[in-house]
Amino acid sequence: MPSQPPLPPLLAPYVSTLPDASLTLVSSILGATSNWLVLRFLHAALSSQSASTFGADDLQNGIKKKVVLVSFMRSYEFWKTEAKRLGLDLTRLAEKHQFAFIDGMSELFYAQSPAPTSSPGMGSSPRTTLPMRGPPGAVPGRAPQPTAPVGTMGNPAAKQEPGIAKKLHFSGRGLASLDAMEKDIALVIEQQKTQMEEGDELVLIIDQPDLLLATTGPSMGIGATEMSEWITGLQQLAHATIVTLATDTPLIHNASGLGGQLATPIETEHAAFAIGLAHRARSVMQLRTLETGAAKDVSGVLRISRGGGLGTGEDNLEEREALYFIQRDGGVTVFGRGES
Amino acid sequence: MSFRKRNIGLSPGVDRNAVPNTAQPAPEGTPGIRPSPDDGRPTTSTGTRSLDNLLAGHAGLPMGKLLFIEENGTTDFAGALLRYYAAEGVIQDQKIHVVGVPEQWGRTLPGLIGSAESLDEKRSDRRKDDRMKIAWRYERLGEFGAVAGSRDAPSTPGEQDSTAKEAPAFCHAFDLTKRLTHPSITNMSFIPLMPSKESPFAAILKRLQTAITSSPANTIHRIVVPSLLNPTMYPPGSCQPENVLQFLHALKALMSAHATRVTAMITFPLSLFPRSSGLVRWIELLSDGVIELCPFPHSADATATSGAATSQEEPPQGMLKTHRLPVLHERGGGSYQNVGQDWAFILSRRRFEIKPFSLPPAEGDTEAQDTAAAGGMPKKSDLEF
Q: pLDDT tens digits, residue range B259-314?
């Protein structure tokens, strides 16, 4: 099979055209995760600068885009390696102030004691047959580290791993804790904006904020309303916002109480949050597995539909349903049913 | 005076010295760690060979990943998997952290028989007679590739042989009726559940964190959590979403911060917490791999159990479903040939085997077949065209 373009043509209009103040909702389930789609959004926004002669950026009209990615479920390491497969060097983009990563995972609930990052020798390099000679060029990034005293405690204020702009902390309860996090994110966005020129656009991607809702819940003073307001607050700071959510059946349909069992707060709040966002979103991109069971050449179904917040008239969004397939090398094909 | 025994030839002696020297500086020189045949990331064994082969072509559990094993009913097949996992860690000199159970649990680890390869060879010897031979030189490859589904499997048989000789075994076989005796079994640490006003998990997390961060960088850790949220072990407040989900999220963060030297396995009773509840779904979403065991209802009449392909084979004891596989689903899913297949598992004294599930030809239904052949189908002459 010939190598696929990083951005499947069928998908390109949906991930690169993001009107001002729009909200795009990406929903995923257990067997059909949304990480690949988030990466496509990243690619659509960031690749035009790194490869300006590439053909796919006709849509951008020379507008520069910046991305702030807030991730609650994945580490920076994951995004970095996966983006590299698409030809995006996130660390370099971060240095150029085109990309900022906000880590909502590693220290969200329990601050970790600063520790030396795990030994660089393991894992990073695949089977090397010549042990005497290290792989060229793999280590320079780490080179300054050994000069610092390894394993010393008490430098939490020091600049963390390169590329991570901020680590979010959840402390206290209720609105105050959400406000603190909003402030942290706003700070990073402001930093990015200082580097912006007229006409530049800032895209905010919030990956799985529903985790925040699930891990706190009404008993800690955070419910669907607070979360939606939190998203609204952040949405105002950015040109366009993309939010990913989990929409597994138990999280959405249990809340209606039709199954005869009482819905737990985690279910009702999640359903309210997800449905509320879908009503506000310009478009909803829904990822799910095939109803007919797994297939060898289909990873899942992507359904793009208009959200409740789509403006009438001037803005047009074509609804469609397509299949997608993720290859071993990370490449994605998106195709209609019956095509290949 | 020679330092070498006279009756031993020169060359083997040199050879034996040379082997560890060349093997050690390799990046994955740590025992029990090997690069995945799929993408080269380091993996470690779960202690169950067929489970290793199920994990999306990596032929092992990738480092930094959390495997979540759910079980329906009152049986403890998941517990057996967990014991294999812990025992494998003990053999490989890894540091084991067991959460929530007393130290007796560590004494019930299954005894070591040998490496999984040696057991497989024995079994295949037995089977050899009744199997048709096509090309014997591809036999080893076939067995590896058939289940692991990997394209980049070690290429030549010669290479595989040499690695098998030099490298220490990746996966071992254990006997459930014996008890494990190994010098490093005392190296296991047991983290009890302390009743506290705050989340009961906070103390656990603290201990895991200090243990992992304070250990030398080449220590490999395994986190073992038997029967998470089981009310006989966990205090009532622990199944509050804010407690258990925060714990799992922080565990995930801890593991990704030390992604090359920690793995974890958690078992979970589904009968107490059904999969249709939002809480369980969130636990699943936070895990890297989700596997569900559905044991068949026990029947005294062994032959009545369906599922055995032939009468010689042991009947499967249950179905196994893979809901999520490490790395594969994180990247989007699909493209793995074994996804979506029905699996059956058999637990015997010496092995936990996972194999494709197939319904047998209906046994004992011969009279129905006879009548169908005789009168049920219309004869050709009866059909009018």
A: 999 999 999 999 999 999 999 999 999 999 999 999 988 654 444 444 444 455 67
- B196: Cβ contacts below 8 Å, ≥ 6 apart: B202, B203
Inter-chain residue contact B253 with A75, CB threshold 8 Å: yes
Closest CB to A122: pick one of B27, B151, B205.
B27
Residues of B whose CB is below 8 A from A40: none
pTM of the model: 0.79
pLDDT digits (tens, 9 = 90+) for B97-115: 999 999 989 888 999 988 7
Residue B88 domain flag: yes
**CB nearest A126 (choices: B40, B205, B286):** B40
Contacts of A235 (CB under 8 A, 6+ apart): A21, A23, A204, A241
Q: Are B180 and B109 in contact (CB under 8 A)?
A: yes
Q: Residue A26 carries which DSSP code?
A: E
In a domain, B380, yes or no: no
Chain B environment of A74 (Cβ under 8 Å): 256, 330
Q: Which of residues 43-82 of B touch A (CB under 8 A)?
A: 63
Burial per residue of A88-100, b for 16 or more beta-carbon CB atoms within 10 angstroms, e otherwise:
bbbbebbeeebbb
ipTM of the complex as predicted:
0.82
Dump pLDDT digits (tens) for A286-321. Answer: 999 888 877 778 889 999 998 888 776 667 788 999
Domain borders along chain A are 24-110+158-282
Taking contacts as CB-CB distances below 8 angstroms, the residues of chain B near A126 are 35, 39-41
Burial of B226 (0-12, 13-18, 19+ CB in 10 A): buried
Given a cut of 70, is residue B185 above it in pLDDT?
yes
Task: Show which of residues 4-43 on chain B sit within 8 Å of chain A, judged by CB atoms.
Answer: 22, 24-28, 30, 33, 35, 38-42
pLDDT interval class at A147 (50, 70, 90): very low
Q: Which letter does DSSP use for residue B380 in this model?
A: G
CA distance B372 to B376: 4
d(CA B369, CA B230): 48
DSSP assignment letter at A211: H
CATH code for the domain of B89: 3.40.50.300
198-227 of B, contacting A, C-beta below 8 A: 202, 205-206, 209-210, 213, 217-218
- Convert the pLDDT of each residue in A4-14 to its tens digit: 788 888 898 89
Nearest CA in chain B to A103: B253
Q: Decide if A78 contacts A97 (C-beta within 8 A).
A: no
Distance from CA of A200 to the nearest CA of B (A): 30
Interface residue B163 vs chain A (CB under 8 A): no
Q: What is the C-alpha to C-alpha distance for residues A171 and A39, in angstroms, rounded to an integer?
A: 30
CA distance B385 to chain A (A): 35
pLDDT at site B196? 77
Architecture of the domain delimited by A24-110+158-282: 3-Layer(aba) Sandwich (3.40)
Full residue range of the structural domain in which residue B330 is found: 30-374
Mean pLDDT of A179-188: 93
- Give the gap in angstroms from C-alpha B107 to the nearest C-alpha of chain A: 31
Residue B216: inside a domain: yes
Considering only CB atoms, A131 lies closest to which of B25, B256, B275, namely B25
Q: What is the DSSP letter of A221?
A: T
Total domain count for chain B? 1
Q: Does residue B10 form part of some domain? A: no
